[in-house]
Structure formats: structure tokens, C-alpha cells
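Our preliminary data section would be incomplete without showing what the modeling component actually yields. Below, a chain of 76 amino acids is followed by its predicted structure, encoded as C-alpha cells that our downstream tools consume directly.
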Amino acid sequence: MKKYTIEKSRRGRTTKVEGTLPELTEYFRYTLETGKSYNPKVNIAPKTARSLVSNLNKAKEASAANGASDTYFYLL
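Predicted structure:
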């Protein structure tokens, strides 16, 4: 399976996570499920890496206390 790298950027710090799509989905499951509880449009089972990143960003925006997240995800 193809491996992807997702970069998480928060307050000037970056973290890179590498894995297959199922591994990355499992790694970020809590973020996706938390976002889904606030916004039902967040997909917790994305079919592509690009969709995973998009849903992670939507999930963080939905669950942010003031509606503006300080955490962003990028596909490298």
C-alpha cells in the first residue's frame, strides 16, 4: 500500500505522521470523531489522503472553542 505523510502544524510547531491511509485514519480517529460530534458533515472514513486532510481540518474547525482552530493539517 502507498504511504502518505501528513504534517500537523499547531502554534509554530510541526509534527509529521507517515503511514498508509488506514493507519493514518486510525491515528487521527479521535480528532475525526470529535469533529463529527460538532459537525455531522465530517467524514470519519475518507477514501483518499486528500479527503482525510480536508476532513481533519474541518473537524478541528468544528471542535475549536471559538470556531477558529489553531491546528492545521497538510498532505506532503
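The chain is about 40% helix and 25% strand. The CA atoms of residues 19 and 48 lie 13 Å apart. Preliminary results of this kind motivate Aim 1 of the renewal.
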